[in-house]
Design a protein that fits this description.
Blueprint: H1 13-19, H2 21-24, E1 28-31, H3 39-47, E2 53-58, H4 61-74, E3 80-84, H5 90-101, E4 109-112, H6 136-151, H7 153-162, E5 169-173, H8 201-223, E6 228-233, E7 236-237, H9 240-248, H10 253-258, E8 274-275, H11 277-280, H12 282-289, E9 300-302, E10 305-306, H13 313-316, H14 318-332
Parallel strand pairs: 1-2, 1-4, 2-3, 4-5, 5-6, 6-9, 7-8
Antiparallel strand pairs: 9-10
């Protein structure tokens, strides 16, 4: 552990994986949201260099096949398994979890990377889900991953038994953008009012990213060392999401107001330095494997390092995190038993 290098803004996911190679070897890793040109893909690719098994997920089978092919082109020895996962649907999440629980292998690391963004909500999906009757961003970014994680707890515990000395990890990919929203509305969880003052799809997204941080913190507290959970800011990155926005000229107004992009949708680096995809996935890989983080379960990671000072006040209140957890359990009809 003492020999690990200091990671920073420009550290790449591959550099983190290479540094943690001895820890990754023999591990089984599940990464949600692994489309090409995204940080989930890069996370899966570098983990596959050393891991025993990397499970990639998505709701589009053809995209999953493309991801698998590209990973194997880069890492011929990679052991990849595809998993269909539609986080919008609680029933689909249950089906996917049942498939994973039928695997013979345990799961050492679960990375909740997949997310729906206001930036790509072009009206093709309903505003509310048919099962929970919640906003589609809330379903994909919070309720779906929460249920998926709960249902995979047996696999995480099995990993602890299979690999003594390694505490299983759950990683929640959040965003610094949570700072720009008003936080989680616990009185109307998952059901924002479009007529309310300050409502926008982007602010809904920011709230879900606050929820990711709160859930990671509360999970670590409740698990009490049985499972370690972390949240992170990957950085401002020109991923497939930005590519689609650029192609369709569908950037939310908040993005130019905040100063991430200009009116043409081109990156602006005055306020927010941009990272490459390779740099953007680094914090995820660090949260998944850097042994130095064992000392700070529940931490928020930025540039591969603990950055608790970056958590907005509306997201840092532990009592709100505890209430969010309890409300979510009630809404999905499942309680975690650590």
């Amino acid at each position: 552990m003492a020999s690990l290098p200091t990671f920073s803004f420009h550290t790449t996911a591959e550099q983190v994986a290479d540094s943690c190679a001895d820890i990754i070897r023999g591990k089984n890793v599940l990464v949600t949201g692994t489309s090409l040109n995204g940080i989930g893909y890069e996370t899966a690719r570098v983990a596959a260099k050393y891991a025993n098994l990397v499970i990639i997920t998505g709701y589009n089978e053809e995209r999953l096949k493309l991801t698998e092919a590209e990973i194997k082109k880069s890492v011929p020895s990679a052991n990849i398994r595809r998993l269909a996962l539609n986080l919008l649907s609680q029933a689909a999440v249950r089906d996917a979890a049942a498939e994973v629980n039928a695997y013979s292998e345990p799961i050492h690391v679960l990375i909740n990377n997949a997310a729906a963004s206001a930036a790509i909500n072009d009206g093709a999906e309903p505003e509310r889900t048919p099962d929970l009757d919640v906003d589609v961003q809330w379903a994909t970014n919070h309720f779906g991953p929460f249920l998926f994680t709960k249902l995979l707890l047996p696999k995480l515990y099995a990993a602890a038994r299979a690999s003594p000395g390694f505490t299983p990890r759950v990683v929640w990919v959040s965003a610094k953008g949570h700072q720009f929203g008003g936080g989680v509305d616990l009185d109307n969880l998952g059901r924002p009012d479009p007529e309310a003052e300050g409502y926008s799809l982007m602010n809904v997204y920011f709230a879900t990213k606050s929820a990711n941080i709160m859930i990671a913190s509360e999970m670590a507290r409740r698990a009490a060392g049985k499972v370690n959970a972390y949240s992170l800011h990957p950085g401002v990155i020109f991923t497939n999401v930005f590519m689609r926005m650029k192609e369709t000229n569908s950037f939310p107004a908040e993005m130019s107001t905040i100063g991430i992009v200009n009116e043409q949708g081109d990156p602006v680096s005055d306020k927010f330095p941009w990272k490459s995809i390779e740099e953007g996935a680094a914090s995820t890989v660090a949260a998944a494997f850097d042994p130095r983080l064992d000392a700070t379960p529940g931490a928020y990671i930025d540039d591969c390092n603990v950055a608790m000072e970056e958590i907005a006040p509306h997201t840092a209140d532990p009592s709100k995190a505890a209430r969010l957890w309890s409300l979510t359990e009630e809404m999905i009809g499942e309680k975690f038993e650590f």
